[in-house]
């Protein structure tokens, strides 16, 4: 068929890419130049950017408007497409690099090549980390909806790595599926002569929704693997013609397979060939291919790029009918086509779908109109950690109008919220975490191209317990709860559908169920939760902004429904104890309900939360012994609910200030933030967010760390300043060798008071759990062991405090401390300390105290 040529370069290998966000065509040439063609304004001259010579790959990130190129010199260069300048070399390798891709919303670049390493480069600080591969790397492909990269090796294997965390993690391998390929080029790559053997396809390709991995095989076929189980579900036969490249269109409808002398286009769903043609490359060879709607571009080894307009027949959308007719009229009037008119070949808008740039403008316009209405309430809504869900926005506009025809929006003061959730990031690929806890995290991905669906991935911190899995969601779920056995998802509301929706499935996908939740006018689901019972009798709770609380068993049977005040958040413990946060006007309360018999332990008790510019709730969960834990965004402090089993006697105890724990007074950590996941024993399990302005975890996700609980008792800075003052009095400077050691000793001594309060607090918490009739016998021995540890810490801390008081001659304070010591052994140690320091009156009083205690024990 006829085609046009873009003669942007007179020679060299030209790689072609299409950037849908900016609607630009990128052509990178091995002679050291990139040219950017603005398709929306074809009359403009292309932007030229100098790059390193002998490039081996070109990759771009649509949202950040950046590109990277690799070369046989082993350099990875970062390009700013907006300014048209290079940002310099961000990584170097001793051997050639063969490919690179942007991952994690453009925050990092993964690259590799002949040195058997996979290198991850942070774009911002240029830091790198690497893992060793079993062979040379030849190609990379990125699945943005699953945060997975497929790594093609020279031995024909494909390894799949998860890059959702900081360190790439191998999740699967496909062995002996590719043509074995060893790159021998070390300088200029001559695909036409010396390095012709390297012109064989050894790359993989992901579908836009992330469900399928396309792999070219040894038999010159393209096999389609399903991500769920890595099984082959489709095969596309290229009639034994050697595959040079292949690409799936953005809408997933068409697959092009490029060979040395032509190409085939398949309908992806049916597998039928819908177009096939030969191309005369004038003694040269095709190099790669890229789609723009139904417009196909082919890069070649002689510098040219071929442009094939309307390569697949597709009716133009109504938006472009007039433009298409005008184009036809111009052609009919005899406009000369010399085969090299760049303006003509870039002016095409007869795509399969709406032109991306205009489609985005239309979508953004709709979003702007939404925000004109929704933002009126933003000052009252900005507390919770997740942003407005799309279904929540729709529910606010459903069925409300005024006499002048404008939408009248009722004031909703509660956002749909799941513990650990985050708002969507910005860009063409939208990502957010639906929920996060000690076990794992659930995250969704939406794209402009696939607006009607989103990809949901369920991931686990301990991958030996459950495997990660993914599925496509057509319902628009925006709430979630995760336990050891399954995932609960909910759609808060939808103006196009009747009622809210709840969906449950177990992690092994052995059973699932779905049911609609009846909602009254202006009602929507605000929170859902699932218990994590050891007996596998889980209960599911669904709450709404109007205070309707519905309880289901794990099979979807409704076992109860009650009416309460508007629900903000729900969490359920392993023993099916429900902790519920409610809101009336701007007042927050909490209730604790035993779901087995719907007994209230606490009901509508005031909660120490308030609306502010910061997050309302940063974390809410139970500890391992069913004590509610709350981390508010205002003070970033971990609170535990004490004595909640006693009516009218519950109280919140601060255990740890997260900011002070990770930042302290270190200026280098001033931008670090803490994202709590759960409390394990006396350690906070959390994520440390290093740098950046975001309050939320992003991609990549840092690995969880544990921070020791340290109750806010002692001001460490004062201890440090006091020690510095003492050293100055002694004539010792800041550089004294003993400064750091003495400072640590002072900190330990000051912490004795914190240890005393902490051991007292946890001892009381454990005692309450031990006395709870619902506590299982299997847990009691563990609780007793922990209680003994607390008792030992209690006495040790008092002995340290006693010693400090004696050393400062504060004898009244020392006597008040020793009276709190429980064990005779510790009392005897205090007696010896007083005796050694020659405080004989104090020693005698301690001896009398010991004798009195022994007599009381004998009487008992």
Describe this structure in words.
By secondary structure, the protein is an alpha+beta fold. Among the domains are: 367-712, Methylamine Dehydrogenase, Chain H (7 Propeller), CATH 2.130.10; 744-859, no CATH class. It has twelve helices and 51 strands. The strands form 13 sheets. It has a four-stranded antiparallel beta sheet, with no helix packed on it. Strands 2-3-4-5 form a four-stranded antiparallel beta sheet, with no helix packed on it. The longest helix has 33 residues, at 739-771. The chain is elongated, with a radius of gyration of 33 Å. Residues 315-383, 394-412 and 718-749 have low confidence and may be disordered. One of its GO terms (cellular component) is nuclear replication fork.
Q: For the terminal residues, how far apart are their CA atoms?
A: 103 Å
Mean pLDDT: 83
User: What is the β-strand count?
Assistant: 51
> Strand order across the biggest sheet?
1-28-27-26
CATH topology of the domain at 367-712: Methylamine Dehydrogenase, Chain H
Q: What is the C-level CATH assignment of the domain at 367-712? A: Mainly Beta
Q: What's the helical proportion of residues?
A: 10-25%
> How is the biggest beta sheet arranged?
4 strands, antiparallel
- CATH architecture identity of the domain at 367-712: 7 Propeller
Note the quaternary state here. Answer: single chain
Secondary-structure class: alpha+beta
């Amino acid at each position: 068929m006829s085609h046009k040529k873009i003669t942007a370069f007179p020679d060299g290998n030209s790689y072609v890419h299409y950037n849908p966000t900016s609607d630009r065509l990128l052509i990178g040439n091995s002679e050291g130049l990139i040219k950017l063609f603005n398709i929306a304004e074809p009359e403009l001259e292309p932007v030229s950017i100098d790059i390193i010579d002998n490039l081996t790959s070109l990759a771009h990130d649509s949202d950040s408007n950046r590109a990277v190129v690799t070369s046989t010199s082993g350099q990875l260069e970062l390009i700013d497409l907006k300014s048209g300048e290079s940002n310099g070399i961000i990584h170097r390798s001793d051997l050639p690099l063969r490919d690179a891709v942007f991952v994690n919303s453009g925050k990092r670049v993964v690259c590799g090549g002949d040195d058997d390493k996979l290198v991850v480069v942070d774009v911002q600080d240029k830091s790198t980390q690497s893992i060793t591969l079993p062979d040379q790397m030849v190609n990379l492909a990125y699945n943005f909806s699953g945060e997975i990269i497929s790594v093609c090796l020279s031995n024909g294997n494909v390894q799949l790595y998860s890059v959702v965390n900081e360190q790439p993690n191998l999740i699967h391998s496909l062995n002996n599926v590719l043509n074995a390929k060893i790159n021998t080029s070390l300088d200029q790559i001559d695909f036409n002569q010396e390095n012709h053997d390297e012109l064989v396809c050894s790359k993989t390709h992901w579908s836009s929704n992330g469900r399928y991995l396309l792999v070219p095989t040894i038999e010159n076929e393209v096999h389609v693997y399903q991500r769920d189980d890595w099984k082959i579900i489709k095969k596309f036969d290229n009639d034994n013609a050697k595959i040079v490249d292949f690409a799936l269109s953005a809408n997933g409808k068409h697959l092009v397979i490029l060979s040395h002398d032509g190409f085939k286009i398949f309908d992806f769903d049916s597998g039928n060939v819908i177009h096939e043609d030969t191309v005369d490359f004038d003694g040269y060879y095709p190099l790669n291919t890229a789609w723009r709607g139904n417009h196909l571009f082919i890069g070649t080894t002689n510098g040219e790029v071929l442009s094939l307009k309307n390569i697949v027949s597709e009716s133009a959308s109504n938006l472009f009918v007039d433009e298409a007719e005008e184009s036809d009229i111009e052609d009919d009037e005899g406009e000369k086509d010399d085969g090299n008119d760049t303006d003509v070949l870039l002016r095409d808008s007869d795509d399969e779908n709406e032109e991306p740039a205009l489609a985005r403008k239309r979508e953004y316009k709709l979003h702007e109109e939404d925000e004109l209405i929704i933002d009126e309430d933003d000052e009252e809504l900005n507390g919770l950690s997740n942003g407005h869900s799309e279904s929540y926005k729709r529910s606010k506009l459903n069925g409300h109008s005024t006499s002048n025809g404008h939408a009248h929006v009722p004031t909703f003061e509660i956002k749909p919220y799941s513990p650990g959730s985050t708002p969507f990031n910005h860009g063409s690929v939208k990502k957010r975490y639906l929920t996060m806890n000690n076990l794992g995290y659930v995250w969704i991905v939406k794209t402009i191209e696939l607006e009607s669906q989103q990809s949901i991935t369920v991931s686990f911190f301990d991958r030996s317990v459950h495997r990660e899995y993914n599925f496509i969601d057509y319902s628009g779920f925006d709430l979630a709860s995760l336990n050891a056995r399954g995932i609960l998802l909910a759609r808060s509301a939808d103006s196009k559908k009747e009622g809210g929706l709840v969906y449950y499935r177990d992690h092994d996908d052995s059973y699932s169920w779905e049911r609609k939740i009846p909602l009254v006018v202006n009602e929507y689901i605000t929170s859902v939760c699932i218990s994590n019972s050891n007996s596998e009798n889980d209960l599911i709770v669904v709450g709404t902004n109007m205070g309707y609380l519905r309880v289901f068993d794990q099979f979807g049977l409704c076992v109860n429904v009650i009416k309460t005040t508007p629900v903000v958040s729900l969490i359920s413990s392993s023993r099916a104890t429900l902790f519920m946060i409610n809101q009336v006007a701007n007042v927050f309360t909490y209730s604790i309900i035993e779901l087995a018999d719907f007994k209230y332990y606490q009901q509508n008790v005031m909660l120490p939360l308030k609306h502010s510019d910061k997050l309302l709730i940063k974390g809410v969960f139970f500890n391992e012994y069913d004590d509610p834990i709350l981390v508010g965004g205002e003070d970033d402090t971990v609170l535990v609910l004490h004595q909640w089993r006693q009516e009218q006697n519950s109280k919140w105890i601060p255990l740890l200030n997260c900011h002070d724990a990770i930042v302290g007074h270190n200026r280098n950590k001033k931008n670090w933030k803490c994202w709590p996941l759960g409390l394990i024993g006396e350690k906070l399990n959390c994520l440390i967010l290093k740098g950046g302005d975001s309050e939320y975890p992003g991609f990549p996700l840092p690995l969880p760390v544990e921070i020791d609980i340290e109750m806010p008792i002692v001001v460490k800075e004062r201890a440090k300043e006091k020690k510095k003052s003492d050293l100055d009095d002694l004539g010792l400077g800041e550089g004294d060798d003993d400064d750091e050691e003495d400072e640590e000793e002072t900190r330990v001594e000051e912490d004795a008071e914190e240890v005393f309060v902490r051991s007292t607090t946890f001892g009381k918490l454990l005692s309450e759990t031990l006395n709870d009739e619902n506590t299982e016998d299997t847990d009691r021995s563990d609780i007793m062991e922990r209680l003994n540890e607390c008792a030992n810490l209690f006495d040790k801390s008092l002995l340290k405090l006693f010693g400090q008081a004696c050393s400062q001659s504060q004898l009244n304070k020392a006597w008040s401390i020793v009276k709190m010591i429980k064990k005779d052994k510790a009392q005897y140690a205090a007696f010896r300390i007083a005796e050694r320091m020659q405080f004989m009156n104090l020693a005698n009083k301690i001896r009398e105290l010991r004798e009195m205690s022994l007599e009381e024990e004998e009487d008992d």
